[in-house]
From TrEMBL:
This is DNA-binding response regulator. Keywords: DNA-binding, Phosphoprotein. Residues 181-245 form the HTH LytTR-type domain. The keyword DNA-binding applies. It comes from Geothrix limicola.
C-alpha cells in the first residue's frame, strides 16, 4: 500500500504551503512544489513518478492553461487538477481535460472530494489491477439484464421499489432493480460518489449535463434531454460546490 503521490504549483508561497499541508494531512505524498509556468513545463518534459498534478492557473511566465497547451499530447503527464481564484476559467479548464477544478482558498473538505473523485482518497496498492465495471441486475421480462453504473444517471425509490434510470439507445428510461431502499444502492457502490438530492432520489454526479438555479435556494440538474431533477435546498450548495459554482 502507498499514498497518492502528488505535485503542486503556485507562485504564492502561502497558498503553496497551505495546499501542500492539506495534501499531506489528507494522506498524500508531496513529491514536488513548483513556482511558475516555465518550471512546470521543464519538470513535465521528463517522466515523473506522480499520480496527480495540482496546477495553478494564474502564474508568471505561463498560465496553467498555457502549460497544458504547450505540452500537447503528453503521454506521461499525470492527471491535472486546476487550482485558481478565478471561476471564469472553469469551462476552459475542463476543455483542457482537467480531472477537476478547485477554487481558492482550498478547503480540506473540497480537497477530500477531489481526491475521492480521482478514486484515490486513501492509500492504494501498487500495481493493483483496474476495478471491474460496476454492474447490477434489472428486470427484463421473466429474466434479468445487467446495467453498467456508468450508464445510469440516478436511482429513484417508489413504494419500496428502486428504479434505475439509464439511457438505452439514447432515450432515458427506468428499470426495476432488486433493491427496496436507496441505502442498499449506496451500500452496493460505496466509492461511486452517489449523492442523495431528495429523499427518493440518488444522483450519479458524472451524469449531470447542466444545472439551473430555482427559487428558494434550490436547483435543477439535467441528466438527459428532457429529464431534469430537482435538488433539495439543503443539498444544492453541495452540488454547486462539487461543480465549482
Amino acid at each position: 500500500m502507498r499514498p497518492l503521490r502528488v505535485a503542486l504549483t503556485d507562485d504564492e508561497p502561502l497558498a503553496r504551503a497551505r495546499l501542500a499541508r492539506l495534501l499531506r494531512e489528507a494522506g498524500c505524498e508531496v513529491k514536488a512544489e513548483l513556482v511558475d509556468g516555465p518550471s512546470v513545463i521543464a519538470w513535465l518534459r521528463d517522466p515523473q513518478d506522480v499520480d496527480v498534478l495540482f496546477l495553478d492557473i494564474q502564474m508568471p511566465g505561463a498560465t496553467g492553461l498555457e502549460v497544458m497547451a504547450e505540452l500537447g499530447e503528453c503521454r506521461h503527464c499525470p492527471p491535472v487538477v486546476f487550482v485558481t481564484a478565478y471561476s471564469e476559467h472553469a469551462v476552459r479548464a475542463f476543455e483542457a481535460a482537467a480531472a477537476d477544478y478547485i477554487m481558492k482558498p482550498v478547503s480540506a473538505e473540497r480537497l477530500a472530494k477531489t481526491l475521492a473523485r480521482l478514486g484515490e482518497a486513501g492509500p492504494r496498492r501498487v500495481d493493483a489491477p483496474a476495478a471491474a465495471p460496476q454492474r447490477f441486475p434489472v428486470k427484463a421480462g421473466e429474466g434479468h439484464v445487467f446495467l453498467d453504473l456508468k450508464r445510469t444517471s440516478h436511482f429513484e425509490v417508489e413504494e419500496e421499489v428502486v428504479w434505475a434510470w439509464a439511457s438505452i439507445q439514447g432515450a432515458p428510461s427506468r428499470h426495476r432493480t432488486a433493491w427496496t431502499t436507496l441505502a442498499e444502492v449506496e451500500a452496493a457502490f460505496p466509492g461511486a460518489g452517489l449523492i442523495r438530492i431528495q429523499r427518493h432520489l440518488l444522483l450519479r454526479p458524472e451524469a449531470v449535463l447542466g444545472l439551473r438555479p430555482l427559487e428558494g435556494g434550490r436547483a435543477s440538474v439535467r441528466v438527459a434531454d428532457g429529464l431534469d431533477l430537482e435538488v433539495s435546498r439543503s443539498v444544492t450548495p453541495k452540488i454547486k460546490e462539487l461543480f465549482g459554482l
